[in-house]
Amino acid sequence: MPELPEVETIRQDLRQKILNTKIVQVKVLREKAVRSSTFSLPKNLTGKMFSEVERVGKLLMLKVGERYLLIHLKMTGQLIYIKHNKIIAGGHSFPALNTQLPDKHTQIIITFKDGGILYFNDMRRFGYARLVTAAEKEKIAATYGIEPLTSSFTYQKFSEVLNQKKTILKALLLNQAYFAGIGNIYADEICHEARVLPNRRANTLTEAETKKFYNATKKILTKAVRYRGTTFNNYLDGEGKKGNFVSFLKVYNRDGLKCKTCKKSLIHKKTLAGRGTHYCPVCQR
Ligand SMILES: [Zn+2]
Hints:
This protein has 285 residues and is α+β, with helices and mostly antiparallel strands. It is 26% helix and 24% strand. The protein has 7 helices and 11 strands. It has helices at residues 4-18, 41-45, 134-141, 155-164, 169-174, 184-194, 207-226; strands at residues 23-28, 50-56, 59-64, 67-72, 77-83, 86-91, 106-112, 117-122, 128-133, 268-272, 275-279. A 5-stranded antiparallel sheet has the order 1-7-8-5-6. A 4-stranded antiparallel sheet has the order 2-3-4-9. A two-stranded antiparallel sheet has the order 10-11. α6 crosses α7. The radius of gyration is 20 Å and the shape is elongated. Residues 259, 261-262, 265, 280, 282-283 line the site of zinc ion (ZN). Keywords: DNA damage, DNA repair, DNA-binding, Glycosidase, Hydrolase, Lyase, Metal-binding, Multifunctional enzyme, Zinc, Zinc-finger. Residues 250-285 form the FPG-type domain. Its cofactor is Zn(2+). Belongs to the FPG family.
């Protein structure tokens, strides 16, 4: 599932491509992808322009007039922008990205006057697009917790949340109502960076551990955004943007391999909060 760094990468890329360009056609190939939309996409987007691409957690919010097109990629959603055979794609990994689009996974096609086309693809079909009012958008955004890469993510707020919760760290990090945008990959990497076990109860962390945990959260997510996330594909737009956080992963998907930090233990994996969780029993306490 695309997490904060991957969705932020898409946001930054899309901003450079689709803003202030007239939308000339919108096709919804699968009605269920827009079932919760307040307004019809073809009727209300055609002839308009996106003026900003915002994000809260893993949710993209494209401003169009006074309304917002909300796009959530969920498990396997992908946004693929193509113009003059140059591709920008983000979201779920692209082991089998078919450049002949649309394909059987295409849900929505948005065509721009400048020749650019934005495809919303989704293999597992959990993602959605909704066109809503500004008030609805605000209401939805308010259900998200603190954004880790903004000024509202202070040590004080972070430690307040941790001190009040008996839940295990893995579950706390995954809960979008506390901290927005963190999913399975970065939850595991943050716990490792902070040297705490993901099954520790949040309120048992010492102040020193809480500080380390706070700094680890900022460090991991900032670095992942800089390297354009972990699931970003190889299809770049020819502007030389490259990079991948995969090579920096220390625990995620490394079960059975030697810990890169202590070089003593193997990385273990067990199910926590319903998700496969990776950690080093030597480095993390
Ligand atoms: Zn280790």
